[in-house]
Amino acid sequence: MISLLLVEDDLKEALVIRNMLKEGLQNQFTLEHGLSLSDALDLIQQNQFQAIILDSHLPDGKSFESILQFMQFCPDVPILILSGVEEEDQAIQAVKSGAQDYLIKGQTSSSTLCRAIRYAMERQRATQRITQLAHYDHLTGLANRGLFYERLNCAVARCHRNDTAIALMFLDLDHFKGINDTLGHEYGDSLLKTVAARIKKCIREIDTGVRLGGDEFAVLLEQIVSIEDVASVAQRILHLLAQPVIIKQHQLHVTGSLGITIYPWDSANSQELLSHADAAMYRAKAQGGNTYQFYTAGMKTAGLDGSTLEMELSRALAKEEFLLHYQPQMNISTKQVIGMEALLRWHHPYQGLIGPNHFIPQAEENGMIIPIGEWVLRSASKQAKYWEKQGFPAPHVAVNLSARQIHQGHLPALIQDILKHSHLDPENLKLELTETFLIHETEETIQTLREIKAMGVHLYIDDFGAGYASLRYLKSFPVDGIKLDQSLIQNLPHSTNDAAIVIAVISLAKALGLQVIAEGVERQEQADFLEEHECDAMQGYWIAPPLPANESAQHMVHV
Predict the structure, then answer these.
(1) Among 219, 396, 408, 469, fewest CB within 10 Å belongs to which?
(2) Cβ distance 42 to 16 under 8 Å?
């Protein structure tokens, strides 16, 4: 049965249309009749229709002018306009307003009318299917990432206008990968469908459940009244998730980590909301999972969980989310910049700019430092060559090397290849080795360093004096210089112990023919002390902070 609504103020015309429908649809329909637009709006709020037939001229207005009102209450119901006059402009306006068809009374037969109804319903179903594919996740039926961003931006705009609040939740399933790996993707997909269904049970119609991809979900809660209400929704979601799931006689258990942020209390825009919810979710995961965390200041760069970081870093490398900032190194006596240190940053899509301390240690552990380190070497060498071509006076670039890079076995060949493809003079490349790495020296690693040194590349010991200092390194390793750790610099000149160590190291390095660079210089008095005791070079915020390549280049000309 096809459920139809006819809006026609002329009872004779209404009877003609009813008879046409009887003939064409062979009584396989139900028909409600409204005499005016207001009658029709009342009827559509009380009934479900599959198509609406509107007279173009009604006592309380032109029907096509009220199409938007109909679409507000029944957006998926096709609308056909019946007009007593053939007016092309009006027909175009009606279709532009959202009508599926425009028919002329007296020129429309039973078969034409019924065929138009069927076609309109088919077109509407096709449109719905296209919309479903474009805006909804095909597996779970939840909104997809694209629709989520649209609704989030609209929700933020409404909040701004109406002085209301929304909550954004990011949900990541705990240990989902283990289920996929052990039972297969068929079980994983079934589990994701169950998770989506449970999320839907916990939210209202005005809220939005989203599958961002993989086992990552989001929930947008609108018109929130209190933090307690938001926490209650989070608790319901986690409680339902924790219930066993039976799939093909397998009883599966899954929990989730939820991060929550509130607009406008936590952030000023949509992008910050995404970043904060992501950071809070990682904090919940770091707590062991099966819990929720509200965003608090300071979470933004502290939330990367080691169990998922390898995948995140791999994705970041593939999507070119890494970038380099450069900090100038200045000759203390001439006050001229002698080179730039390349410093890695990660522009995370949600968390924003992340410093290396928050991901490099884990990258060292999981091996991602190898491809990331190669990217840094290639990018920095290419940038140094560009500066050289531009005629800058100090195109030297310094790059940090990790222990895993040195131990990978083919580092000399890699550096040779990078120099070849970048056309960079080896003299313009400085490689910095962390002092803590040197305590694990072997003859093999020393030989690797000698091969690199033989190319003409400069080698420096970084973070010298950070806690593992051994003067024998200066003798056994083929290095050109050392970098004094900032922990020795920060209390100069007031700490007599630090001052004595710095003076002694500078004197020893001079005797061995090594250059000394002090890092972490932030005050004039520190710079004066280093100059007085003939330190060769320095870097730090007193000169300039790390900046993108195009901004840091100005420091090559003057400081």
Answers:
(1) 408
(2) no
- Of 361, 274, 267, the residue nearest 313 (C-alpha): 361
For 503-529, the pLDDT digits (tens) are 988 988 888 889 999 999 999 999 999
The dihedral through the CA atoms of 307, 309, 315, 317 has a sign that is: negative
**Residue closest to 240 by CA, chosen among 287, 171, 168:** 171
DSSP 220-288: EE-S---HHHHHHHHHHHHHHHTS-EEETTEEE--EEEEEEEEETTT-SSHHHHHHHHHHHHHHHHHTT
- pLDDT at residue 85 above 80? no
SS3 205: coil
Per-residue pLDDT tens for 127-182? Answer: 777 766 778 888 999 999 888 998 999 999 898 888 889 999 999 998 887 887 78
Cα–Cα distance, 267 to 108 (Å, whole number): 58
Alpha-carbon distance 373 to 313, whole Å?
12
Task: Taking residues 97-115, report their average pLDDT.
Answer: 86
d(CA 501, CA 364): 30
In DSSP terms, which residues pair with 81 in a beta bridge?
54, 102
Cis-peptide, bond into residue 412, ω within 30° of zero: no
Q: Which two tokens stand for residue 356?
A: 């290396």
Residue 318, SS3? helix
Distances (CA, A) of 497 to 35, 336, 492: 96, 30, 9
Judge whether 524 and 542 are in contact, CB under 8 Å: yes
Q: Which 3-state string (H, E, C) describes 435-459? A: HHHHCCCCHHHHHHHHHHHHCCCEE
Q: Give dist(CA 353, CA 330) in Å, integer.
A: 26
Distance of CA 114 to the CA centre of its chain: 50
pLDDT at 200: 95
What phi and psi values does residue 532 have, to the nearest 5 degrees?
-60, -35
Query: Do residues 47 and 74 lie in contact, with contact meaning Cβ atoms separated by under 8 Å?
Result: no
The stretch 178-190 carries a mean pLDDT of 84
pLDDT in tens, 425-483: 999 999 998 755 665 566 787 888 899 999 999 999 888 876 544 566 666 778 899 99
* SS3 per residue for 513-546: CCEEEEECCCCHHHHHHHHHCCCCEEECCCCCCC
**What is the distance in angstroms between the CA of the first residue and the CA of the last residue of the chain?**
82
User: Max Cα separation, the chain?
Assistant: 112
β-bridge pairing 322-331 and 537-539: antiparallel
Q: Write down the pLDDT at residue 202.
A: 95
As a whole number, the mean pLDDT across the chain is 85
For the range 370-374, what are the long-range contacts, defined as Cβ-Cβ under 8 Å and sequence gap of 24 or more?
Answer: 370/404, 370/405, 370/408, 371/317, 372/313, 372/317, 372/322, 372/344, 373/401, 373/402, 373/404, 373/405, 374/405, 374/414
